[in-house]
Design a protein that fits this description.
Elements lengths: L1 H26 L5 H23 L9 H17 L5 H22 L6 H18 L8 H20 L6 H25 L8 H26 L4 H7 L2 H13 L6 H34 L1
Helix pairs in contact: 1-8, 1-10, 2-3, 2-7, 2-8, 3-6, 3-7, 4-5, 4-6, 4-9, 5-11, 7-8, 10-11
């Protein structure tokens, strides 16, 4: 159990690190959205190839084209959406879309969250809204739609990884298949005289995003998904905006506020309720089965 908690926490921190790197690169105009996504996916693929070759017993990549498409779709929509959204507005749209997608599909598949899980979801969502509310603005409809699409794609990509038996090989195959997709986007962009912006800092941020926060982080997330229901996996990801906000305080020297502390505590309490509710439900089911 301790290992599952550690790996889950590592993956969520990697997701938050991804948001910080994207903010550093795109908001500072260090790189354009297409180039950021290209470097991100390519560096992720190269890193995973090396890890898969040297440390994984299964040398060949796995994955599939459908999962690769949703990874590609998430990465592209995420990058372009943040060109027109504030960090707070984007976080709210992204993670609300992820929750809706994963919980709805979980319900369709027969999952029935308990009372504590629903209460935890409400508390965590409430904390997220309170956390980002001061930064909310009337979002551009195109950017909002792109971020909602990113959330939908990430939700589907996450759910497709719950049955993974070899997370590194699976993620390696998905990243490799996503590379030709983003290269096609780059070529089309160049045909339409898309303005390429690329600085050394922008390339480094994108490479770190791909190699560490995406490649390694997503592989670890895939590895622990089989231990979480769709509902719990969705709720756990509500911790990411709070982690990203605290990362902004430490890395970007952003101001810490009482609202940040209290909202983050509310999110974490909601997550704690949801996780404990699931454990209680599982324990009761086990006891009933044993009595039978």
């Amino acid at each position: 159990m301790a290992k599952i908690i550690f790996y889950t926490a590592f993956a969520l921190v990697a997701f938050a690190f991804n948001s910080i790197l994207c903010r550093l690169a795109l908001k500072a105009d260090e790189i354009d959205a297409v180039s950021f996504t290209v470097i991100r996916l390519v560096s992720g693929a190269v890193t995973l190839l090396a890890i898969n070759y040297f440390f994984n017993k299964t040398k060949e990549g796995r994955g599939n084209w459908i999962s690769a498409f949703f990874l590609f779709s998430y990465a592209v929509c995420f990058s372009f959406a943040y060109l027109g959204l504030t960090t707070a507005t984007g976080a709210l749209i992204l993670f609300s879309s992820v929750q809706f997608t994963m919980i709805l599909i979980g319900l369709i598949r027969g999952e029935r969250p308990g009372t504590l899980e629903w209460l935890g979801l409400v508390l965590a969502l409430g904390g997220l809204v309170w956390l980002v509310f001061p930064g909310l603005s009337a979002p551009p409809p195109v950017s909002s739609a792109l971020m909602a699409a990113a959330g939908f794609s990430w939700g589907i990509f996450t759910l497709r990884g719950r049955g993974s038996t070899n997370a590194v090989a699976e993620m390696t195959g998905n990243f490799l298949r996503s590379v030709p997709m983003i290269m096609a986007v780059l070529l089309i962009s160049l045909l339409f005289v898309y303005q390429i912006k690329l600085s050394a800092n922008g390339a480094i941020f994108a490479a770190l995003s791909g190699a560490v926060a995406s490649g390694i982080g997503y592989s670890i997330w895939y590895a622990v998904l089989k231990h979480h229901t769709a509902t719990r996996a969705a709720i756990l990801q509500l911790a990411v905006p709070a982690l990203a906000a605290f990362g902004g305080v430490v890395i970007l020297s952003e101001a810490v506020s009482l609202r940040l502390i209290l909202a983050s505590a509310l999110i974490l309490c909601g997550i704690g309720l949801a996780v404990s509710g699931k454990k209680k439900f599982a324990t009761e089911n086990t006891e009933v089965t044993e009595r039978k």
